[in-house]
Specification:
Oligomer: single chain
CATH architecture of the largest domain: 3-Layer(aba) Sandwich
CATH topology of the largest domain: Rossmann fold
Largest sheet: 6 strands, parallel
Structural class: alpha/beta
Distance between the termini: 35 Å
CATH class of the largest domain: Alpha Beta
Radius of gyration: 26 Å
Shape: elongated
CATH superfamily of the largest domain: Crotonobetainyl-coa:carnitine coa-transferase, domain 1
Number of helices: 19
Mean pLDDT: 88
Number of strands: 11
Number of domains: 2
Order of helices and strands: EHEHEHEHHEHHHEHHEEHHHHHEHHEEHH
């Protein structure tokens, strides 16, 4: 039962990361996703390696693979009448239409809600945006570094006051979170259509996702001009929600919110039971009042041993803690491996690693296949739509499909 969306057909007319990643998740959950790409240049995300944005020595465009694995690709020119006829035949059989195109492009290509619903009145229509489908900037596009990270207040609240420039984002971080939201909304709309018989129009934007992610800060800002204080190590009133550096320069992060409950056991695991009886640190209130002294004691303790020893010492500690890891370390994290979060994918005789979506059904990770090459499944999809080989060859010769 892990393919919970088996039988669902998705048509994706989208580019870059946000909307395609949502369709990828639907594919992981069992849907048949057909990605529409221009027969000559395809999704521009494919060009990040050749344009120099990504290094080319890997032999794989991991950005495109991550956002588009498990789909089929149909290369078709939607501006040509014959190409539009192919798309319309796909839409008639589809459950979901996903797009990231801007309003003016959707209007020119006749891809707006009314256009698509005229072909299939029961289809769920999902679109992604930079700043939303209403307001003065409805017609403007946007990337996650600007709309999610910068404008969405994420960079501001993560950048230390003394920094000379804002903290930069990781690649497609806002796109990925927004894609999760869009995929979940589509799944909810499929359920709603089954229950109530009405298809939905879904909108998800980078700016709206940022507001949701920053919800605690935004809500606090509505109540007080200063908002929530920045979470800085030197001002954390509870040392057990801070981080400490080991002898070999690694960091261990603690998240023990019930400070008084965890303090005695914590002190035992770090071989400092004397701190429990120290009047300066006896209670959470005492530790907050003597924060500088408490942090100095703990800094010295953790600086005396390397990470390997601390892993052994902290094993079995009831409170929550974690090592600050790199992406390379995450690849081989025992819990990541045990749960199949980053499987190896066979890609034409060579393997590479992809991150699957966080949702798993019935105790099984999804079965994942590589991202398609541009137009890889054109012949297959056209045959499913009833085209014979003479028709397919004619479409290829005229440049309508690839």
């Amino acid at each position: 039962m892990r393919d919970v969306l088996r039988g669902v057909k998705v048509v994706e007319v989208a580019q870059w990361w946000l909307a395609p990643s949502a369709a990828t998740l639907l594919g992981e959950w069992g849907a048949d996703v057909v990605k529409i790409e221009h027969p000559l240049h395809g999704d521009p995300l494919r060009g990040l390696t050749t344009s120099g944005v990504l290094p080319g020595e890997f032999g794989i465009n991991f950005m495109f693979e991550q956002a588009n694995h498990g789909k089929r690709s149909l290369g078709v020119d939607l501006a040509r009448p014959e190409g539009r006829e192919v798309l319309d035949r796909l839409i008639r059989e589809a459950d979901v239409f996903v797009t990231s195109f801007l309003p003016q492009v959707r209007a020119r290509l006749r891809l707006d809600v009314d256009d698509v619903r005229a072909i299939n009145p029961n289809i769920i229509y999902a679109r992604s945006h930079g700043a939303g489908d209403r307001g003065p900037e409805r017609d403007r596009g946007g990337y996650d570094s600007a709309l999610f990270w910068a404008r969405g207040a994420v960079a501001h609240h993560l950048t230390p006051p003394e920094a000379t420039s804002p903290v930069g984002p990781r690649p497609s971080i806002g796109d990925g979170i927004s894609g999760l939201s869009l995929a979940g909304a589509i799944a909810a709309a499929l359920f709603g259509r089954e229950r109530h018989g009405e298809p939905s129009v879904i909108d998800v934007s980078l700016l709206g996702t940022a507001a949701w992610v920053m919800g605690p800060d935004v809500c606090a800002a509505a109540l007080t001009p200063d908002g929530l204080p920045q979470l800085r190590r030197e001002t954390q009133v509870n040392p057990l929600t801070s981080c400490f550096r080991t002898a070999d320069g690694r960091w261990i992060w603690f998240a023990m919110l019930q400070a008084d409950r965890h303090w005695p056991e914590f002190c035992a695991h770090i071989d400092r039971p004397d701190l429990v009886d120290d009047s300066r640190f006896a209670t959470a209130v005492d530790r907050a009042a003597n924060l500088k002294a408490c942090m100095a004691e703990l800094d010295a303790v953790f600086a005396a041993r390397p990470l390997t020893e601390w892993r052994r010492k902290l094993d079995g500690l009831d409170g929550v803690w974690a090592v600050v890891q790199s992406a390379r370390e995450l690849l081989n994290d025992p819990q990541v491996v045990a749960n199949g979060y980053i499987p190896e994918i066979d890609h034409g005789g060579s393997t590479h690693r992809l991150v699957i979506g966080p949702a798993q059904f019935d105790g099984q990770p999804p079965a994942v296949s590589p991202a398609p090459s541009a137009g890889e499944h054109t012949d297959e999809v056209l045959q499913e739509l009833g085209a014979d080989w003479d028709q397919i060859i004619d479409l290829k010769i005229s440049g309508v499909v690839s």
